[in-house]
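ok trying again, last paste got cut off:
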Amino acid sequence: MLGEFTCPHCFHHWHSGKIATQIWLGVPTDKKNTTNRYRTLINCQRCQGCERYAELDINKANYARKVVSAIILWKGLRKKIDPGDGNITTGPHDSERCRGCEKGVCEFSQR
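nice, full thing came through this time. structure:
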């Protein structure tokens, strides 16, 4: 995922092209046992200046493209694409400040 983080405490601002995101497909609803739903969890990052978690402004077009791509793959309408499919990155991944790395769910983890 792509996005921009801003620390609400010290106002440090940075861009990230490596935001740990989890997508669950086929999530049942409470009212029906249907599985035509999805759920996402976008993991935050800690600020380099004060080590507190920052607020994310996600790139909505990139988010929509990634979710649609995952749904199409899940439905069996295409095969998995090589990870080097033109993903935009903004430098090395800061595993020490990534919440996804802390939880052990980040695909970019360098720990």
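cool. Residues 43 and 103 are 9 Å apart (CA to CA). The chain is about 20% helix and 20% strand.
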